[in-house]
Every structure is written in C-alpha cells, then in structure tokens.
Amino acid sequence: ERKGMIGNIYSMGLAMQALGATREFYSPRNWDCAQALDVVTKHDYELAMAIAQVLPALVGRSYLDAASLDCDATTDECPSLGTDPEGPESTANINVHYSITNKLQGKHFHNSTWVTVPLGSRLLTVLEKAEEKDPKTFSFETKQTSWGPMVVSIHGLGANDNDRTYWQFLSSGKPLDEGVGSYKPKDGEHIQAVFSTW
Hints:
This protein is of the alpha+beta class and 198 residues long. The chain is built from five helices and eight strands.
C-alpha cells in the first residue's frame, strides 16, 4: 500500500532491521525487502541518528548481528547509493505557502503567508522567513534533539507533554516524513503547522 514505506522515513531503519532479523517468524506473507530498500536508497539521509539506524539494514544485517561481525574481513556488501540525480542545487528561488492553525487551546487561530526561499532550502528556513516577515504572528521556538531541531512553540503556543500536545507539520494535509531541519519543500507547496494531540 505504501510502496515500501514502514512508519516514516525515521523509523524505516529499525523496522527493516526487525523484519530482517525475524523474517522466518511472521506471516501471512513475506515482507518485500526490495521495496523498503528502494525507499531508503532514494532518501537523502543527513541526520546521524537516521543513518545509524538504516545502515545495518542496507548491508543486510541488524544490530543483533554486531557481536558476530568479522571486522577484519573485507567485503563490499553495501549497495552503491549513487549520486544526486539532480546534480548541484540551483540558486533559483521557490515560493512556499505556510500556515499555522490552532483549534485546540485558548484563542483559536489560523494564519497563512507566502514566503520565498532558495531552492533546496529546509523547512526550518521557511519558518525563519515567515517569522522575519511577520514576527508577531509566525514566531516559533525549537529545541535541539538527536533527530535535529524540533518545533516546540509557534505563535506563543507551546507543545506540552502533560496535555499530549505538539506541532504537527503537513504538506497538503499529509504528515511530513521528515523534520523541519531535513524536509525540503517544493515550489508552490502548502506546508501546514497544526497544533495537535497524540
């Protein structure tokens, strides 16, 4: 159904390791490893945590195999990931529609803006440009995690573990598979930050 995607791009590495290590124990059908490999080899992993989790699966191993690896052996088991087919990023600009919505707590709001950023910019740059354009409306705060920056507050409304609230980022209504420090919006894309519960 999801063309090889298991969970999201961050959970893929561990899911592939688990499925690879337990392939003889699950049913009713075999897991299509090739589809999952196709997903991860096409993704540009940049975060160390994500790379550490997907790399064992790319070489057909799991962390469970670490104790039995022969580190002196010279093998070439890792498939070539190739190069970026698009080549170096262009200096062209793109326009991104960015909106923030809160229908959960306090005074509800929905605000939108268009920002222009260089092609290849991360979503974090879109948030920064929106804040520059209208700091009162689009202010935000992040905290650094091992997965990169995580948005913890927008427009003065902070996520809260006790309330089980967080800021969810979507593209045209679908949750993003990457965080604000990794995701690269496309020209004309509508990025929504929605105050949500888990």
